[in-house]
Design goal:
Elements lengths: L8 E7 L4 E7 L5 E8 L7 E6 L5 E4 L4 H14 L8 E6 L10 E2 L2 H9 L8 H14 L4 E6 L9 H4 L6 H6 L8 H15 L7 E7 L3 E7 L2 E5 L22 H9 L3 H10 L2 H6 L5 H9 L3 H21 L8 E5 H6 L1 H8 L11 H4 L5 E3 L7 E5 L3 H13 L2
Helix pairs in contact: 1-3, 6-15, 10-11, 11-13
Length: about 400
């Protein structure tokens, strides 16, 4: 990644469907001058939490809708002593369709294309657009950059992204696998290459982004060559509330035989399945692990299914690479759940993965937890914000 010596703060904005994460991060030295999140927007529990560097954490309630929350966030950013020094604004955008294979400076054509992708990400792209429009109004003098979750996966070969459906559905309607979490997978590939003392161009990595949403990416020479999420973030691994891969006839069966509406099926697959659906307890791996210790067999089943499907798909995606230099765990579960890492690796010994039990429980921000005779197993702290800020720097010409 590009190295600089000046003080170069970037405002990073990540608008979700009901949350807004934000940060002022210095591209030159990695310092974070402001960090915050607006949560549960649109509900009675909506609140804004933020912290300026060197100051106490602040909290306030949010009354109103997403636009009201966005106005509060932007006012907090304006109050930062680094606001006048900002070199640009980086916006996370979930879906760029087939339009964008890299981050871009935002203009009217870019916003039109982000709007055209709403049909592919109806929960997220509208929020991304609102964040762009309001931030541009408050900081019109700055360069605004869109960083797409899908862009990193544009290097997938056709045999990896085309579904085995009638070809006209791709040709005429762009129904294909796009992949997500690309910004963090890209970041992980850089850090992993450094930890391996290899050039990015000569590295072959499987990145496992494990949080409430989960995905794998096979990365060869810094380029994604396969990934587990598809047209939407529902495909692939078992996740917090998403089912991942299932028999595609199940939705039709639920509609025809069980009387569910298409909307109810979508809600079930995206928000009532995964760890939550199996355990009937929680989508939080920490709560489930505690429940297992207390003898909850359904929580154990949920974790067993999660780990088995993860190991199974790590093995499957390995065929996209000529060799494996490292398997990387990242994201909230990937970074913090030593028991999950151990259970997954125990099912991958045929790929020459062996975990060091002591290293596995003593990780720091970026760690090697592999045994001496193992292919490298790394833990890398997720940092989409660093990648977004770096892209802003690259596109502003600073």
């Amino acid at each position: 990644m590009k190295k600089v010596s000046n003080i170069l703060p970037v405002f990073v904005l990540n608008c979700g469907s009901s949350s807004i994460k934000f940060m002022i991060r210095d591209v030159a030295n990695g310092k974070v001058y402001l960090t915050g999140v607006a949560d549960a927007i649109g509900s009675k529990k909506a609140s804004l939490h933020y912290c300026h560097a060197g100051a106490d954490k602040q909290q306030q309630s949010i009354r109103g809708d997403f636009a009201d929350a966005m106005r509060l966030v932007l006012e907090v950013v304006r109050q930062s002593d680094k606001a006048k020094a900002l070199i640009g604004v980086g916006h996370r955008v979930v879906h760029g369709g087939e339009y964008f294979s890299a981050s871009v400076v935002i203009d009217s054509e870019v916003t039109d294309r982000i709007r055209a992708c709403i049909k592919l990400a109806p929960l997220h792209n509208p929020a991304n657009l609102m964040g762009i429009e309001q931030a541009q109004a408050v900081f019109p003098q700055l360069t605004h950059v869109a960083v797409f979750d899908t862009a990193f996966h544009h290097s997938l070969p056709a045999h990896a992204y085309i579904y085995a459906l009638p070809y006209y559905l791709y040709r005429d309607h762009h129904i294909r696998r796009y992949g997500f979490h690309g910004t963090n997978h890209r970041y992980v590939s850089h850090v992993a290459a450094d930890l391996l003392n290899k050039s990015l161009e000569d590295s072959h990595i499987i990145s496992a982004h494990l949080g409430n949403g989960c995905s794998l990416a096979a990365i060869a020479g810094g380029k994604s060559v396969d990934t587990t999420m598809g047209l939407t973030p529902l495909e692939g691994l078992v996740m917090g509330t998403r089912c991942g891969n299932i028999d595609p006839s199940i939705p039709g069966l639920l509609i025809a035989q069980h009387g569910l509406s298409p909307e109810a099926v979508d809600q079930l697959l995206n928000h009532q399945s995964g760890l939550l659906g199996i355990s009937e307890l929680s989508n939080d791996m920490r709560e489930l692990s505690l429940a297992v210790e207390q003898g909850n067999q359904q929580a154990k089943l949920a974790i067993d299914i999660f780990c088995y499907q993860l190991a199974k798909q790590i093995a499957a995606i390995s065929v996209a690479l000529p060799c494996i230099d490292a398997l990387v765990f990242t994201g909230g579960i990937g970074e913090n759940a030593a028991v999950i890492r151990h259970q997954v690796i125990a099912q991958l010994q045929h790929l020459k993965f062996k975990i060091d039990p002591v290293k596995n429980t003593q990780t720091n921000e970026n760690s090697d937890i592999s045994a001496v005779d193992s292919t490298a197993i790394l833990v890398v702290k997720a940092n989409e914000e660093a990648m977004i800020a770096q892209d802003v720097l690259s596109l502003t010409g600073e």
